[in-house]
Amino acid sequence: MAKATEDAADVVGMWVTADVRRRGPLMNADDTTSAAVLERLQRRSADPRRRILFTGATIVTMDPALGVLDRGDLLVEGDTIAAVGPALSADDAVVVESAGTIVAPGFIDTHRHAWEAQLRRIMPDVDDLAGYVMATLAGYARAYRPEDMYIGTKLAALTAIDSGITCMLDFSHNSRSAEHSDAAIQALLDTGIRGVHASMGPHFGDWDRQWPSDLRRLKSQYFSSDDQLLTLRVAALATDEIAGPALAYGPDLARVAQDLGIGVSVDAVFGTSSSEAVLRWAEEGILNPGVTLIHATGLTTEAWKTMAATGTTVALAPTSDAQIGLETAIPAVDEALSAGIRPGLSIDVEVALASDMFTQMRALHAIQRMRRQRLLRHRPAALPDHHSRRTGLRNPSGRPHQRTGEHDRFTHPRQEGRPPDHPGGSPQQHAAQRPCRHCGPGLRRPQHQRRPRQRRTPQVERPRPRRRPARFAQRGAGLARARPERHHQVTLPVVSA
């Protein structure tokens, strides 16, 4: 963990969970974490050399040399994690007994529209992207005042901290005036979260058109230092399909970001049009490691290769892609890993989605497992290389398993060199069946080659109608019962007297 904080400007970014035994808050572990300890922490909060010692916690260090400490201590000096290990001592430190808790590095939310937080869960059953856009960006966003921006952004930041997210990128795409931007930034400052303010103008409605020229004022007023918790980025859209060319990323916005020395976050990157935009940005020289593409769903292979070659970073939104239905609705984690890109995760919009990172991780894990199982069963030849390396699903010859015929099964290792029309099958499918002339006596004939056993359907004896003598057919109106074995009805004409 200490090594990780060195890469993050030596600023504390850890998260302490609730008591895993009592299901209670951290400060109820025992008497040493009472109200008196809280008072000491608050009293010394302004001291830049304040020392806090967390003792007896399960610590996820993220350091290969230390691993996970079942019972360890963590010392914080000022805003830096000074030491991690067992039985640390600090004479003048405020001791926080943390037995039964988990201390871990904080999560990073790479993309959240924080101003929408007070609209949380207004549309949990959102139909699609158009439904979200019309309800929020074309609806509520028009009525937002600067104080509304402050409330929403602060609520989102506090929610992030409460769920273990210690760094959040606020994709603030409702900057209708300079006052709206100021309010959003001030909310992040007041919560104390490490964050990124990514500023963009609104999609619809009236606004002051101060963006992107106002970014220079924001940079000088709030982000003059490179050593601070908050940083600034340009926010943009991938194409002009939703809000027009003014908000779409291109050479003009790339020049603004370059002049200010800040990065760019591009939202709504999905589909064929975004794939074409990625290739165009690369040709224009505006795709680089300072650019983050959000969602990246349904992109072409050429686009992924270009992103990898230029060092472009990617932010996925697992529950957003699936629930709002963005392009393929499947997070592109396999595509990113296959291209050599390690993506980040994000929350996106709280109007329809959960606010914590655990939900994103569980959703992504389930979706990736689903895709892997489908590849294993239906398309083994298309299994990505990173899956093959992790699972070892390769033949003894080193070649990936291939699909054979229309049966969609793996090629069995014993089948190499067999005729191409051999149906394959797994050892379980071969077992307890007749010998196969291709596989030899060790394996058995696949189930689909066996001759199906014919089963006789039991015949149900039905009573046969008794045949009447032919003489009854000659009796006057007895035509209707002349052939009673016929089951259809005969309608006789009505004859008047």
From TrEMBL:
Q: Which Gene Ontology molecular-function terms are recorded?
A: hydrolase activity, acting on carbon-nitrogen (but not peptide) bonds
User: Segment Disordered: which positions?
Assistant: 378-497
Q: Where is the composition biased (Basic residues)?
A: 445-456
- Give the InterPro entries listed for this entry: Amidohydro-rel, Metal-dep_hydrolase_composite, Metal_Hydrolase, MTA/SAH_deaminase
Q: Which UniProt keywords apply?
A: Hydrolase
Q: Hydrolase among the record's keywords? A: yes
| Ranges where the Amidohydrolase-related domain occurs | 102-381
Q: Which portions of the chain have biased composition (kind: Basic and acidic residues)?
A: 403-421
Descriptive protein name: Cytosine/adenosine deaminase-related metal-dependent hydrolase
